[in-house]
Amino acid sequence: MDKNFHQSLYHGMLLNLHYIIFGPVIVAFFYFVKRAFKLFLSEKISKNFNNGRRIANIKCFLGMKNRKETNTEIKYKAPLKKSIFLLLISLFFIFSLLKYDKDGKLAAIKVKEAIEAKNFTTVKFQKNESSDIIAYLYCGSRNCVGLDTETQEIVYFPQNGHRIQLPSPVPVEKS
């Protein structure tokens, strides 16, 4: 079965769509928690000065800064923070592509094993009365693709004018 790089990436992306959707939701959640925590600390400090001193001592113990950054620090740290952020985003994107490719290949291997075990969905064409057995592989936005099991050729066909027959279920033995 010939599955090129783009097909593997696309199929892997579809398998991992939940990461794409929930990733920004998790980032937004942590951003919300951070802002809520800062608001909570601000309220505590405004109620009692001793609370502020305790928070400053905790920050000092944890190695966090208690003072504002100077203009020079802000000027030179901002591009550094942006470049680190862009590097992390780029690495995340590259590793996502690698994961999508791996998952797409695993899905293709499972389909290939099912075809070899003769447990696959068949496609029959309404206009063609031949007894060719085409294993259904995937449908895109305009065309579908199947595998001719006799010649091991990839067959592309339009999304209309065919019938799909699911594999027969395996009988379950009752004990």
Query: How much is the radius of gyration in Å?
Result: 29 Å
Helix coverage percent: 55-70%
Biggest sheet, spatial arrangement of strands:
4-3-2-1-5
The number of helical segments is: 4
* Domain module count: 2
Share in β-strands: 5-15%
What order do the SSEs take from the amino end to the carboxyl end, as H and E? HHHHEEEEE
Largest pleated sheet = 5 strands, antiparallel
Please mark out the parts with pLDDT under 50 across 5 or more consecutive residues, or reply none: none
Q: Care to count the β-strands? A: 5
> What average pLDDT do the residues reach?
78
Structural class of the secondary structure composition? alpha+beta
So what's the overall shape? Answer: elongated
Gap between N and C termini: 40 Å
Describe the structure.
The chain has 175 residues and is α+β, with helices and mostly antiparallel strands. The chain has 2 domains: 5-116, no CATH class; 122-165. It contains 4 helices and 5 strands; from the N terminus they run H-H-H-H-E-E-E-E-E. The chain has helices at residues 5-15, 17-47, 49-61, 71-116, and strands spanning 122-125, 134-139, 143-148, 153-158, 162-165. A 5-stranded antiparallel beta sheet has the order 4-3-2-1-5, with no helix packed on it. Helix 2 (17-47) crosses helix 3. The longest helix has 46 residues, at 71-116. The two termini are 40 Å apart. The relative contact order is 0.12. The model has no long low-confidence stretch (mean pLDDT 78).
Descriptive keywords:
single chain; alpha+beta; 2 domains; 5-stranded antiparallel sheet
